[in-house]
Design a protein that fits this description.
The chain has 164 residues and is of the alpha+beta class. It contains three helices and seven strands, in the order βααββββββα. The protein has one domain: Alpha-D-Glucose-1,6-Bisphosphate, Chain A, domain 4 (2-Layer Sandwich), CATH 3.30.530.
C-alpha cells in the first residue's frame, strides 16, 4: 500500500437522464433527498434557508442528514456554475467536485473527493468510508433516475447494511 493515494479518490457513473435533471439532483434540496439525504437545507449568503426547489449557488451553506444516522453534516458550496459543475466542502475540510458531462444519451457523473487528511482515522473513515458511501449513493442516484427505485435502507432495525 506504499503507492496508495489516501488523499483523494474519484468515482464515475453513467446515468440515462438529461443533464438538467442530474444537475438538479445535486443542487436542489427537493431532488437531493430523492437519492442521497433524508433532509437537506441549503442556506443563502445571509444564512436564510432557501426554497426547496431553488438551486444552490456558490457561497451557500448546507445542513445534510441521512436515514439511520444521527450525524448532521455542515458545509459550504464553493463552486456552482448552474449547468455541469459543483464543488462543496465535506467531511471537514475535504472538497468534493461533481463534474457532469454528456455522452450520447447518458450523463457521466465524475465525483472526486480530495484534500483528505492522512491520519489513521481519516484514512479509515473518510478515504475508505466515503469511497464506499459515494459508490452506493451514485448507484442509488442511477436507480432513482433511470427506474424510480430508491435502494436506501430506511429501517432503523437493520443498521449496518451495504445500502446504508
Amino acid at each position: 500500500m506504499k503507492n496508495f493515494d489516501w488523499t483523494t479518490f474519484t468515482k464515475k457513473i453513467a446515468v440515462k437522464a438529461s443533464l438538467t435533471d442530474i444537475y438538479d439532483a445535486w443542487t436542489t434540496a427537493e431532488n437531493i433527498e430523492k437519492w442521497f439525504l433524508s433532509k437537506c437545507i441549503f442556506k443563502d449568503l445571509q444564512g436564510i434557508p432557501i426554497d426547496r426547489k431553488k438551486p444552490l449557488e456558490k457561497g451557500f451553506d448546507y445542513e445534510w442528514n441521512w436515514f439511520l444516522y444521527e450525524l448532521t453534516e455542515h458545509g459550504k458550496i464553493t463552486k456552482a456554475n448552474g449547468k455541469d459543475f459543483i464543488q462543496f466542502t465535506f467531511a471537514g475540510e475535504c472538497l468534493v467536485d461533481v463534474q457532469l458531462s454528456v455522452h450520447q444519451d447518458m450523463v457521466i457523473i465524475e465525483l472526486t473527493q480530495k484534500n483528505i487528511p492522512e491520519d489513521d482515522r481519516s484514512k479509515r473513515e473518510i478515504r475508505l468510508g466515503c469511497d464506499a458511501g459515494w459508490s452506493f449513493f451514485l448507484v442509488n442516484l442511477k436507480s432513482v433516475y433511470e427506474g424510480g427505485l430508491d435502494l436506501r435502507n430506511k429501517n432503523s432495525s437493520l443498521k449496518g447494511m451495504i445500502n446504508c
